[in-house]
Amino acid sequence: MIAEQSKSSTGSHLLYETGCVAGIRLDTPTPEWVRLWPVGFRELPESDKFHKWQVIELDAVKSRRDSRPESFTPHLHTLKLGDVIESKNKWRNRRELLGGLLGETTLCDLMAAQGGGG
Which of 35, 59, 82, 85 could form a disulfide with 55 if both were Cys (CB 3.0 to 4.6 A apart)? Predict the structure, then answer.
């Protein structure tokens, strides 16, 4: 996972916090961006709380609520934590994971791809 962004949502009579996380898919022939939502990070057991730049494995399905091609709904009960990718050697290992994604896409490109202009 690369980043986490939290926001509040309401459900029935409870206020709970959910957010989306951005990451890189490593199960595809080439790296791809992925957005996972909803993630109730604060409600996860301590043993399942992942860090930025930590490899995670989980099942997810294409989001039915979000038309962005990178958006998926995670099945958090399948979450498995992997290694944290170190930032040593000027982020060498992280840059290698990014592969062709590094500098490939601008915010304008992303917005245009989802029909939001740019």
Answer: 82
Residue among 111, 18, 23, 107 nearest 67 (CA): 111
DSSP assignment, residue 86?
Answer: P
pTM comes to 0.77
Tell me the residue ranges of DSSP E strands in 1-118.
3-11, 14-25, 32-39, 54-62, 71-84
Among 74, 78, 27, 80, which Cα is nearest to 50's?
80
Distance CA 42, CA 62 (A): 23
Q: Where are the alpha helices (DSSP H) in 1-118?
A: 88-98, 107-113
Q: Which of the two residues, 115 and 39, has the higher pLDDT score?
A: 39
